[in-house]
Design a protein that fits this description.
heterodimer; A: alpha/beta; Rossmann fold; six-stranded mixed sheet; four-stranded antiparallel sheet; 10 strands; globular; B: mainly alpha; 18 helices; 2 strands
Chain lengths: 262, 420
């Protein structure tokens, strides 16, 4: 069964068509890649799926339920979490607080409990914090729990952002160019991290990536976009040899395209 | 026994409790013994009042990131709403107190419908008691009118000893001032909070201006408010004790709120609204919450103000003054409760203290004061304390726990390295 299915998804910004008739079917489990040159509309697709942009046309069905018109926080609570192309952690908060915020909807106490510091509050807050600590431990961030997030090195900020997204307990995780700006060492660690997440949390991952090495290395199924439209679908091997894909990335002129790839 | 008390939450903060009580006691002694003149006693109370308004604004601007100039309007609303209650009470008219009671009961209904947990249980209890009281009233007096019941309940205050009755009426008025400000801010916030940044700032500035004009013309609806002539005859009930107590309550409530999941949701909106949404935070809800709670404290401070100065004049609520809380919040440090309290006292004491300049030099305080502001902003743009907090207000540190059993990233990576 498809975790995520979109049909005819279209987004206009004024007269500009950023995404046209985008259809994707992401089956449960596994790693799926969404690739394409700059400006192809990949992030716009993510923004529509997570509710940050309203879709101009088309349907988005997540887990058998239409999410078109829902608020972003409702969609997250249904089970879609994401990271952003330019890391968007909460910069002035500690690592612990960054992840505790993602647990917010499971806090289990109200405003008055917090203000009066009732026994119920103390118990729930302790549970919440300890669960977060266990979670940070899983990602090797436990020792950094009291560090201010913006003071972490880039690779660890990305790791924190992914950890925070996972703390929201998603069924589907959307990663928007997780390897952007990373050095080769950090990229290798990231690929390990993504494999680890898939195995440990048993969820579906859809990721946008520019670095072919990353996509081809970890994605089982790839969708390629160009100028807002899907131009190819298939396994890594199929996509790599697709003529339209090569043209989209390297331009027309068969000799040049063929040589570079070889 | 002592050991057990020391282990409770209050026990861990005993130094701060003793410190606050000592500050209050020293102030009270100096006022009672006449070491501080009435003039300076008033300034200290004004400092507490300004600290409360500014703490409310810090929640809205410093912690939630919504730039608001409406705080002064809510301050005015709280002042007038509460003054009207005690004004009537002082003249034997219980209808004001009955309105407060109605507000309380409506609040209880709202909590039963939308609240959860402890709040809901308490509200249900209050409502239950009210219904029982009403039924008793129907049987004894023989009238079904709920209003007559509420007025009769308030008449009980009249037979209480004078001192007690006066303080109960005062506290009811304070609660009412805060609540009216909070309710107005809720309905004002519904459309306006959707606008971000500068637009919100301008809209709230407009709100403060509108409230000032309404105060100018309030006598056409409430003759006792006397409009632009200024309302006189409000009982002067705010004392150093009440000002201190409500400042402490405000600080504790905000601290407890901010150091909870609710508070973290409020702060996440300031940090990155888009990311907060993507983390499942209903940002509209938490913007509204911060705005309403912040306005409640503005209203509360306004109520304290109304019972401190004999005349309530609309010029005191001119929008130019709405920059005072803003100056205090930025001066003390956005996102620092400690900083706001320190800055409020520094503001009140220095602005008045500069009056002590030699004769003929008093007007120089309007040169010195802006210069101080300029210098602080140049040398310490993050405010006196930045985002830092002191002692009791500091966030709780959760000690690191022993690593839990199970697969961790390191273990997996280690295994891969080993096999490679």
């Amino acid at each position: 069964m498809a975790v995520l299915k979109t049909e005819g998804l279209t987004k206009f910004f004024g007269g500009l068509c950023a995404v046209r008739d985008f259809g994707i079917e992401v089956p449960e489990g596994g790693l799926h890649g969404l690739i394409g040159p700059n400006g192809a509309g990949k992030t716009t697709v993510f923004n529509m799926v997570t509710g940050l942009y309203p879709a101009s046309e088309g349907s988005i069905v997540f887990d058998g339920q239409s999410v078109v018109g829902m608020e972003p926080h409702q969609i997250t609570q249904l089970g879609i979490a994401r990271t952003f192309q330019n890391i968007r952690i909460f910069p002035n908060l500690t690592v612990l607080d960054n992840v505790r915020i993602a647990y917010h909807s499971h806090a289990g106490y109200g405003f008055l409990d917090a203000v009066l510091r009732t026994r119920h509050f103390e118990q729930k807050e302790r549970e919440l914090s300890e669960r977060t600590q266990d979670f940070l431990d899983v990602f090797g961030l436990a020792d950094l729990q009291d560090e201010v997030a913006s003071s972490l090195p880039y690779g660890q900020q990305r790791r924190l952002e992914i950890a925070r997204a996972l703390a929201a307990d998603p069924k589907l995780l959307l990663l928007d160019e997780p390897a952007a700006g990373m050095n080769p060492q950090e990229t290798v660690e990231l690929m390990d991290l993504i494999h680890f997440i898939r195995d440990r949390f048993a969820l579906t991952i859809l990721l946008i990536e520019h670095q072919m090495r990353v996509v081809m290395g970890i994605c089982e199924w790839i969708t390629v976009m160009d100028f807002g439209e899907v131009i190819a679908r298939g396994t890594a091997r199929e996509v790599q040899t697709n003529r339209q894909v090569i043209e989209a990335y390297l331009g027309k002129g068969e000799v040049a395209g063929a040589r570079r790839r070889a | 026994m002592i050991k057990r008390v020391a282990q409770t939450r209050l026990g861990t903060h005993w130094k701060w409790i003793v410190g606050v009580v000592a500050v209050y006691a020293v102030g009270q002694l100096m006022i009672s013994l006449g070491i501080l003149t009435t003039y300076w006693a008033t300034i200290l109370q004004k400092a507490c009042i300004m600290a409360i308004v500014s703490l409310g604004l810090n929640l809205i601007y410093g912690f939630n990131g919504q730039f608001s100039l409406g705080q002064w309007g809510f301050y005015a609303i709280g002042a007038y709403a509460s003054a009207d209650i005690t004004y009537r009470w002082a003249r034997g008219d219980m209808s004001g107190l009955a309105v407060v009671l109605t507000t309380l009961l409506l609040g209880a209904v709202a909590l039963v419908v939308w609240g959860k947990g402890t709040a809901r249980r308490i509200a249900a209890g209050v409502l239950g008691m009210a219904v029982v009281g009403w039924i008793v009233h129907i049987v004894v007096v023989g009238t079904f009118s709920p209003w007559a019941f509420l007025v009769d309940v308030c008449n009980v205050f009249a037979v209480m000893p004078g001192f007690l009755s006066q303080e109960v009426a005062f506290l009811a008025a304070l609660f009412f001032g805060g609540t009216v400000a909070a309710v107005v801010s809720y309905f004002f916030g519904l459309p306006v909070l959707k606008m971000g940044g500068d637009y919100f700032g301008i809209a709230t500035l407009g709100f403060t201006m509108v409230v000032k004009v309404l105060a100018d013309n309030a006598d056409s609806v409430f003759p006792e408010m006397k409009g632009a002539r200024g309302m006189v005859g409000t009982p002067q009930l705010t004392t150093w004790f009440w000002a201190c107590l409500f400042l402490v309550i405000t600080v504790v409530v905000l601290r407890n709120l901010l150091q909870s999941s609710t508070g973290r949701a409020v702060i996440s909106v300031r940090e990155d609204e888009t990311a907060a949404k993507a983390m499942g935070i209903d940002t509209t809800k938490y913007k509204t919450l911060a705005f309403v709670v912040g306005s409640f404290f503005a209203g509360l401070a306004g109520a304290l103000y109304a019972h401190r100065y004999p005349t309530l004049h609309p010029t005191a609520f001119h929008f130019v003054k709405s920059f005072d809380p803003l100056i205090i919040v930025v001066f003390g440090g956005l996102g620092s409760l400690t900083g706001t309290v320190v800055a409020a006292f520094a503001w009140a004491i220095s602005l008045e203290g500069l009056r002590l300049l030699p004769a003929g030099m008093e007007l120089w305080r309007y040169v010195i004061y802006p210069l101080i502001l300029l210098l602080v902003m140049l040398l310490r743009p993050q405010g006196l304390l930045g985002g830092a907090e002191l002692g009791f207000l500091r966030a709780r540190i959760w000690p690191r726990r022993k690593a839990a059993a199970g697969s961790t990233l390191e273990a997996v990576e280690g295994a891969q390295d080993g096999s490679a």
